[in-house]
Specification:
Strand content: 5-15%
Largest sheet: 2 strands, antiparallel
Shape: globular
Number of helices: 3
Number of domains: 1
Distance between the termini: 37 Å
Strand order of the largest sheet: 1-2
Number of strands: 2
Helix content: 40-55%
Order of helices and strands: EEHHH
């Protein structure tokens, strides 16, 4: 189980903690922000200011778009 913040374990708890909504209701960007933090969840999370973390989020969204899991909004 991944600890995203002190006492916050798992994707559902992280979605509710950081975005105040269930994981099923997250936007693609919000979901990417949680996934991008998995290697270092106590340091990389949606409220983190790390440039490395922000680049990981953008790379993940780009990969999702190229794999056609997402489409660019016009």
């Amino acid at each position: 189980m991944v600890e995203f913040a002190p006492g916050v374990y798992g994707a559902e708890a992280a979605a509710r903690h950081f975005f105040a909504r269930p994981a099923a209701d997250l936007s693609a960007r919000q979901a990417a922000e949680l996934v991008a933090g998995l290697p270092k969840p106590s340091r990389w999370h949606p409220t983190a200011t790390s440039e490395v973390y922000r680049r990981r989020v953008e790379r993940l969204l780009g990969r999702m778009e190229r794999a056609r899991f997402l489409r660019r909004e016009i």
